[in-house]
Amino acid sequence: MVGENLIDLFKIDDSFEPHVGGSPLNIAVGIARLGEKVSYITKFSYDFFGEMLKGTLRKENVDISLSVTDDDLHTTLAFAFVDERKVPKFAIWNRSTADSALSYEDFLKVRIDEFDAFHFGSILFATSASDHILKFMEDVKKMGKYIFFDPNYRPHIAKDENKYKADLLKGWKLSNIVKCSMEDAKSIFNLDDFEDIVEMVKSIGKTVITDGENGAYVISKTVTHIPAIRVNVVDTTGCGDAFMAGFIYEFARNDFNEENLVSASKFGTVTAGMAAQKIGAITSFPKLEEVKRFLKNLKEGSNG
Questions:
Q1: For the chain, what are the domain ranges?
Q2: For 232-250, what is each residue's pLDDT tens digit?
Q3: What is the rounded CA–CA span in Å between residue 162 and residue 64?
Q4: CATH class of the domain whose range is 23-40+103-303
Q5: DSSP string of 214-236?
Q6: Can you give the pLDDT at residue 221?
Q7: Backbone φ and ψ of 256, nearest 5°
């Protein structure tokens, strides 16, 4: 996992409560909870929040030995406000922070050949780290490693929105499989019609579009709809990351065979649905035994 780390500060009444966050960090934890070995590559700050991030990752058995720490910079902060639909809205403070200072030199100790696949996030594409991450991912591509990408479109945090969008598309084209929310896809391509989005992503590569309670759409040569798991939704924070963690876990378990895109997406809807039943991001991600128990109960319920 490559990319941003941050602290989500959730507004609760008149105060803010800190939670470890960042999409690739969340996904790393989600995969680790499912029992897979995973490394997270980023740049941490020296401060209290940086130690909080590293402590959480170590506790979750995520390897951070390839990450670096900057003694002079602070942690990115994301202030989260949950609206009436229980959907979080973020105000991100990412100027001159540790993860935004991630450089190509920070990747030099990574032995690409030791990994089966790489996933990278996109919030850092709004910072000076963008060119360095893309250069590293080009190295990964040349080594023939499988690449996953999850583009989150946050133009208000970018100094140069045109470059930001162009870099997102570069990352999309570099990847073997992209998971993108419907909302982000509409914004990135400036399209509202789903059929137009389908034609656009077909021209770029294999994509899974997630659409909340409407489920997911696997887009390759054809389009396959995956219904969402029906649950009592408490908080949707991190559900997209929970989907991606489940998807990558199941897809890797089947040796990255692209015939299993649909089954991996179905597994992703399960981990996302389970996460939606609890408050928070990584605090809500399920462990493998919990997923197995959930699926067993789901099956017994459908047979009852």
A1: 23-40+103-303
A2: 887 777 899 999 999 999 9
A3: 32
A4: alpha beta
A5: G-EEEESSSEEEEPPPP---S--
A6: 87
A7: 55, 30
